[in-house]
Amino acid sequence: MLKKLKFPQMVSIYKCFLSTLYVRCENIISKFMKRLFPILFQQKLIMVKQLFFLLMMTISSLIASAEELYINAKTGNDKNTGSQSQPLKTIGEAANRIDANTTKEATTIILSEGVYALTETVLFNNNKFSVENRLTIRAEVLPDDANWNPQRMPIITAVIPGTPTRGDGEEARGLEIEVSHVTIDGLRFTGSPVYYYMNGYQDRRYYPIWRDGKNLDDLVVTQCLFAGNVDVLPIRVAVIANGNGLALDHCVFYNCQNPVVFWNAQDGTSYRNSMRYCLVYEANYSGVWTTTQTGDDFEFHHNVIANSRTAWIRDDRSTHHYQIHDCILANNMKTTGSGSDTAINNDFLKMENVQLSGIIEIEKDQSKNNYLQLKEGSFGSKLQAGLFKK
Question: Which of 43, 61, 83, 136 is 20 to 30 A from 208 via CA?
């Protein structure tokens, strides 16, 4: 039962336990000490009370060091406190409160099921987090929970006006993560309902998750579903990040133009990046994109990339080599290519147990928990790529 309790609840129970224990122990010790050593008894009692007070203060500080903000698109109000009983309505309001809070503490944003339509970029720029005290943006119910089904995933979509960029059209960013040590867990992102095409040399590009800072580190995107459509709900790049330590884990990318671009870093090489247990299906451009600065330590395994234009794009001027294992890169127009959309030799990949052929079957029955994932028992399902970790 304790495993299902949240951290503050466990701390509160622990405090009650300590209080009860203290009272009982004090009564027993008091009777014994008072009879035998009346003077010493008073001194010991004061000392015990002081130690107990310090212990309670320590436990209280643990509660204060963790912040939770609840969001509910249906019942929330941005004037509420953000507690579970008084949730906020928008992710933007949660971001504003976190950006204004200078206390260095772990912070969790918990989204209930529902549709969250972003009308402007949600910016997180208070870079106060650490490995121990992370910023977590997560669904209230996660894919491995017993009561989860696809309909319970919070859906994040964007109706953000595009910002003109130099010479090549417009772009819109959904969640802009300009802080280190962040986890995004259990959310569903859809494409933007705009015309991608503007004219022969310009287009409109939507990026659900964006990180610009080249000095930032440690962004984990896990158990998230990115579902687009090149014709009506385009996603240019689902996750695009400068800096180091971008990790994609157990994510599904369905009909995105590009699932991910591992971009550039401040020192010229981006390290500690990974993509594991992910499913990419019908990517309209690339299944994974590494740049001239994506370091050789890039971790890539237990992924399925199928029915896409190019499974892996490596920038034209890149000289990096990568080791990949236990993957399927099947039924793609090109296994490897360059940023200019030409096929290149795959000798920059050292492959171990990688299959380059086979038929991938996707579950389209919306009543099933593996909707838009590999059909149960189908080719590739043993790799366990997809939303489920268990």
Answer: 83
Q: Using CB atoms within 10 Å of the CB of residue 221, give its burial: 0 to 12 exposed, 13 to 18 middle, 19+ buried.
A: buried
Burial class (CB in 10 A: 0-12, 13-18, 19+), 83: exposed
233 and 113 both lie in a single domain: yes
Report CA-CA distances (Å) from 157 to 9, 238, 369. 33, 12, 21
Same domain, 29 and 124: no
Q: With respect to residue 175, please indicate whether it lies within any of the assigned structural domains.
A: yes
Domain count, the chain: 2
Element at 14 (helix H, strand E): helix 7-36
For residue 92, pLDDT beyond 90: yes
Q: What is the CATH number of the domain that holds 278?
A: 2.160.20
Do 176 and 271 share a domain, yes or no?
Answer: yes
Question: Across residues 98-120, what is the average pLDDT?
Answer: 97
Residue 41 structural domain = 7-61
Taking a C-beta distance cutoff of 8 angstroms, is the pair 316, 291 a contact? no
Q: What is the pLDDT of residues 315-372, one digit of tens each?
A: 999 999 999 999 999 999 999 999 999 999 999 999 999 999 999 999 999 999 999 9
pLDDT band at 15 (very low <50, low <70, confident <90, very high): very low
Query: Hey, what are 202's tokens?
Result: 């310009």
Distance CA 288, CA 340 (A): 15
Question: What per-residue confidence (pLDDT) applies to 328?
Answer: 98
* Separation between Cα atoms, residue 276 and residue 305, nearest integer Å: 11
Residues 87 and 213 in one domain: yes
Please answer whether residues 184 and 222 qualify as being in contact, where contact means their C-beta atoms are separated by less than 8 angstroms.
yes
Among 61, 80, 96, the domain boundary falls at 61
Query: What mean pLDDT, rounded, does the chain reach?
Result: 89
81 within a domain of the structure (yes/no): yes
Pair (356, 292) in one structural domain = yes
Predicted local confidence at residue 167, as pLDDT: 80
Cα within 13 Å of Cα(323), Cβ side:
2
Q: What is the pLDDT of residues 36-79, one digit of tens each?
A: 445 544 555 455 455 544 554 444 444 445 899 999 999 999 99
Burial of 271 (0-12, 13-18, 19+ CB in 10 A): middle
Compute the chain's Rg from CA coordinates.
Answer: 25
User: Are 124 and 176 in contact, with CB atoms under 8 Å apart?
Assistant: yes
- Judgement on whether residues 200 and 128 belong to the same structural domain of the protein: yes
